[in-house]
Structure formats: structure tokens, C-alpha cells
Specification:
Blueprint lengths: L3 E9 L3 H19 L2 E7 L3 H7 L7 H6 L3 E6 L9 H13 L4 E7 L17 E7 L3 E10 L7 E7 L2 H18 L6 E6 L7 H13 L6 E6 H10 L6 E4 L1 H14 L7 E5 L7 E5 L16 H13 L3 H17 L13 H11 L1
This protein binds 3-isopropylmalic acid and manganese (II) ion.
3-isopropylmalic acid (IPM) binds next to α4.
Length: 356
């Protein structure tokens, strides 16, 4: 890494570029405050480019992106592109090719943000999901037999490897240890060992093996269905959750809802290895109907920048961005929904910069 952090920016489709612009505004102000140097390079990947060229990622794009310290992604998804193409050809392709084996999804209710869970406060909803990001049902192993006939068979296999689950579980234990929650350090494995008696047996054995290296972390287990129940009833129970790719996808949308919606939730696709390139994104989609109206909520994209900084050696700066976000949600914004914030997209960006 040169002393100038290199960031690739994929603004993407719909409102992606608008929220990304606010995130970059906050990044610029943070860099000034903390005197670190960075440089951004724009990439026009997404639906528009696909419709123009037929390519999701042009040849050489992944190797180009690999040279960057981090990637900031706005959103991909275009009404004229068939579902699945951009997801598979861009988002999942980057996760796999750059071996971003951790999907980090904080579920935190910021001050002033409304949760649909009656009676729950900011201190009750504050946990982190560590989702494995390269295996499971996502690796595209499967096929059809007798396709388009009455006897059609479709198979889609979940692939789990010892290496794949161990590196994720180990990272999650490290993360829990460092997070140092005053309520106590607890890592909950979320799986379905009572039914998935092969794949999740591997996860369970690996989890228990790795747990021996972290005696100060409580190693805990929940079945995924029970986890959904507790996330709604007692979210305060959780500190850190580690889970498989598919279950992680599902429970993190539940998580996004209890923390106030897609306008607030951010995620990191992390390759924590030396020289690895990680990618940070707001969880909301491209919201095409709000494009260009300056009404979309940029808080998730700004939170993605906070995470980018925290994960690339600028922890204090990242923490500060998060504090600024919380002060804006807590003291300024009326709502986290598009067009109801009481401010425009760019004004919310300005407020976070001021709060810094
Ligand atoms: C997410 C998204 C993706 C996933 C989709 C867009 C492929 O839902 O990041 O959670 O399933 O992982
Ligand atoms: Mn998802």
C-alpha cells in the first residue's frame, strides 16, 4: 500500500451515484481532519454500461480493481436488466474473484431512528453479523435434468469447506474479542445443525475447535429459525453472530429492518488477507424511481465509508464518521425514508460533514 490510499468508486445505477457523492463528500472532510491522503478512481460498471456493451465486468476489470486498497460501491440494479445478471456478473463475481470471504453487517439502531420493534432502544439493537461470503448455495453448483419437461429435476448444491468456514469463524472470534462489548463477549454460531447434518456439522465442529483458542469469548449456538425469533423478541441478546452465506443473507435483511431500514444499513465485503481488496456498500438497492430527485437517504453509504476507514487502518477516523452520522440521525433527520428526511440527499451529507 502506498501512503496514499487508493479507492475505486463504482457509483452504479439509479440513486447509487447520488449516495456515493455524499459518502465521498464525508470522506474528503474526514481526510482533511485526520490528515490522510487518498485518491479515487471512478468505474462506470452497472446496468447502463451492461445495456450499452453487453458486459457486466469487462476483461481485466477484476485485476484492475485488485490493485486498489478498497472499493466503494453505490448500488447496482437497472429496471431494463433481467434480475440476476448484475447480481451474478458484478456483485457476486467481485466477491468471489477478490475472495472477499467476510460479509460484515452491523445491525445498529442509531439515535433518533425508528425501529418497528416496540419498546426497543438504541442500546438494545447493537450487534454485528459476520456472514461467510464465498461458499454455500452461492457458488453456483447445480444443474437441470430433463429441463422443460414434466419430469424436470433441478439441483442446487450448498458447498462448505473446512478452510472456508474456518477462516470466517476465526475472523469472527477475533472480531468479537476486539469489539470488547461491555455486556460481555459472545459469538453466536447461527446454523441449522438439526437438519443440515453434513454441511452444518462441519461448521459446528470447526466452530468448537476454533473456540478453544478464544477462552475469553463465549461460544454460543442458535438454530437459524430461533435466531429470527430472538432478533425480533430479544435483539439485545446478541453481540456477534457468525453464519453461513445463505442464512446470513436472510437474517441481515431482518437486521436491516430492525435497525430502521435499507436507508441506514451498510455492509462490507472484506478480504482481510494481506493485500486483499475489500468492498463497502449501502445495503439498499438502486431505487430507480428516486433517481435524480435528491431525496434518497445517503446515511447507509456514509456508514459504508465509516466501515471502509475502520477496516483499512483508519479506525479513529471511521469511528468519528459513525459518531457524526449518529448525531445527525439523532438531532436532525425527521425520518430515514426517502423524501421524508426533512432534508435533501446533499443536505444530509452536509450535516454529517458539519457534525464532523
Ligand atoms: C446482499 C444481496 C446480494 C446477496 C444479492 C444482490 C445477490 O442481497 O448483499 O445481501 O444475496 O448476497
Ligand atoms: Mn441480501
Amino acid at each position: 500500500m502506498s501512503d496514499k490510499m487508493q479507492i475505486a468508486v463504482i457509483g452504479g445505477d439509479g440513486t447509487g451515484p447520488e449516495v456515493t457523492a455524499e459518502a465521498l463528500k464525508v470522506l474528503a472532510a474526514t481526510a482533511q481532519k485526520y490528515s490522510f491522503l487518498y485518491e479515487t478512481t471512478d468505474f462506470d460498471f452497472g446496468g447502463e454500461r451492461y445495456l450499452r456493451t453487453g458486459e457486466t465486468l469487462p476483461a481485466g476489470a477484476v485485476d484492475e480493481l485488485r490493485k486498489f486498497d478498497a472499493i466503494l460501491l453505490g448500488a447496482v440494479g437497472h429496471p431494463d436488466v433481467k434480475p440476476g445478471i448484475l447480481e451474478k456478473g458484478l456483485l457476486l463475481e467481485l466477491r468471489f474473484q477478490l475472495d472477499q470471504y467476510i460479509n460484515l453487517r452491523p445491525v445498529q439502531l442509531y439515535p433518533g431512528v425508528e425501529t418497528p420493534l416496540a419498546g426497543k432502544k438504541t442500546e438494545d439493537i447493537d450487534f454485528v453479523v459476520v456472514r461467510e461470503n464465498t461458499e454455500d448455495l452461492y457458488c453456483g453448483v447445480g444443474g437441470f435434468l430433463k429441463k422443460h419437461t414434466a419430469d424436470e429435476v433441478a439441483m442446487q448444491s450448498a458447498v462448505y469447506t473446512r478452510k472456508g468456514c474456518e477462516r470466517c469463524i476465526r475472523w469472527a472470534f477475533d472480531f468479537t474479542q476486539k469489539r470488547d462489548n461491555p455486556k460481555g463477549k459472545r459469538l453466536t454460531l447461527v446454523a441449522k445443525t438439526n437438519v443440515l447434518t453434513f454441511g452444518h456439522d462441519l461448521w459446528w465442529r470447526t466452530f468448537n475447535d476454533v473456540a478453544k483458542d478464544y477462552p475469553d469469548v463465549e461460544a454460543d449456538y442458535n438454530h437459524v429459525d430461533a435466531c429470527c425469533m430472538w432478533m425480533v423478541k430479544n435483539p439485545e441478546y446478541y453481540d456477534v453472530i457468525v453464519t453461513t452465506n445463505m442464512f446470513g443473507d436472510i437474517i441481515t435483511d431482518l437486521g436491516a429492518m430492525i435497525q430502521g431500514g435499507m436507508g441506514v444499513a451498510a455492509g462490507g465485503n472484506i478480504n482481510p488477507d494481506d493485500g486483499g481488496t475489500s468492498m463497502f456498500e449501502p445495503m439498499g438497492g438502486s431505487a430507480p424511481k428516486y433517481t435524480g430527485l435528491n431525496v434518497i437517504n445517503p446515511i447507509a453509504a456514509i456508514s459504508a465509508v465509516a466501515m471502509l476507514l475502520q477496516q483499512t487502518g483508519h479506525e479513529t477516523a471511521g469511528d468519528n464518521v459513525l459518531e457524526a452520522v449518529k448525531s445527525v440521525t439523532g438531532t436532525k433527520m425527521k425520518s430515514q425514508s426517502a423524501a421524508k428526511m426533512g432534508y435533501s440527499t446533499s443536505e444530509v451529507g452536509d450535516l454529517v460533514v458539519e457534525a464532523l
